């Protein structure tokens, strides 16, 4: 079964892009399943269900959603294999811009939108920098000059990625993305595979539930700023 990871900032249009691609691939006869990883809540499972796509939703709660993702993706892959899917798409939202769910050899797609600001590509980090495909959405509500500058900034961050403008509402531009997804590699297991980028090396008292402020409450991996 083929596996694709789709990640991007919240509200960048990930679900709309996945739906537009999936409806075309399903029409070609592919059986597609979705795993949605989010933090506290998600309504996207209803959109996938209305489209007739089997979906599992995982909420990270108090954990980083990308840490939650990597602890569950192997079991998700096995669910997809047992269900007889040809393609499994994992959708997750990067929130801290420091993590990335992308895995070596697994096709990695990052979705960013033209409305997020010209400096956003530099802020997103490994989620964009290590992706194979960068999808840019919401190009229909900015000028041609803004679209070109934003795409240039994306290419500066990740020169190796295929940069594809896609309209998540109409599906315009999704044909090239479909070709990339159809070329994704099949997997029977992810055991032994590696993430493309390490998760944050931070373990401090606040990671463990501390809420008080003060040096006596700070233990573990602490990084401070120079205000002199």
Describe this structure in words.
This protein is α/β, with parallel strands linked by helices and 228 residues long. The chain has one domain (2-201): 3-Layer(aba) Sandwich (Rossmann fold), CATH 3.40.50.300. The chain is 31% helix and 18% strand. The chain is built from seven helices and seven strands; from the N terminus they run βαβαβαββααβαβα. It has helices at residues 14-27, 44-50, 65-82, 120-124, 126-129, 144-157, 174-182, and strands at 2-8, 32-38, 55-59, 87-93, 107-113, 133-137, 162-165. The protein has a seven-stranded parallel sheet with strand order 3-2-4-1-5-6-7, sandwiched between helices. β6, α6 and β7 (162-165) form a beta-alpha-beta unit. The radius of gyration is 18 Å and the shape is globular. The termini are far apart. This is CobW/HypB/UreG nucleotide-binding domain-containing protein. It comes from Syntrophotalea acetylenivorans. GO terms for molecular function: GTPase activity; nickel cation binding; zinc ion binding. Residues 4-164 form the CobW/HypB/UreG nucleotide-binding domain.
Blueprint of the fold:
Elements: E1 2-8, H1 14-27, E2 32-38, H2 44-50, E3 55-59, H3 65-82, E4 87-93, E5 107-113, H4 120-124, H5 126-129, E6 133-137, H6 144-157, E7 162-165, H7 174-182
């Amino acid at each position: 079964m083929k596996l694709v990871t789709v990640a991007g900032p919240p509200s960048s249009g990930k679900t709309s892009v996945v739906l537009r691609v999936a409806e075309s691939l399903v029409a070609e006869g592919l059986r597609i399943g979705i795993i949605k990883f989010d933090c506290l809540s998600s309504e996207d499972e209803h959109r996938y269900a209305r489209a007739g796509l089997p979906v599992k939703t995982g909420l990270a709660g108090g954990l980083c959603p990308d840490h939650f993702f990597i602890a569950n993706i192997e079991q998700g892959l096995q669910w997809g294999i047992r269900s007889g899917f040809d393609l499994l798409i994992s959708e997750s939202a990067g929130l801290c811009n420091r993590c990335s769910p992308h895995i070596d050899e697994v096709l990695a797609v990052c979705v960013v939108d033209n409305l997020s600001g010209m400096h956003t590509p530099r802020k997103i980090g490994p989620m964009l920098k290590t992706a194979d495909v960068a999808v840019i959405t919401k190009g229909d509500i900015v000028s041609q000059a803004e679209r070109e500058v934003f795409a240039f900034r994306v290419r500066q961050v990740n020169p190796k990625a295929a940069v594809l403008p896609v309209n998540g509402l109409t599906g315009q531009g999704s044909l090239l993305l479909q070709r990339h997804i159809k070329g994704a590699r099949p997997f029977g297991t992810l055991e032994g595979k590696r993430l493309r980028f390490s998760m944050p090396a931070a373990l401090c008292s606040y990671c463990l539930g501390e809420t008080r402020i003060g040096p006596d409450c700070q233990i573990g991996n602490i990084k401070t700023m120079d205000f002199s």
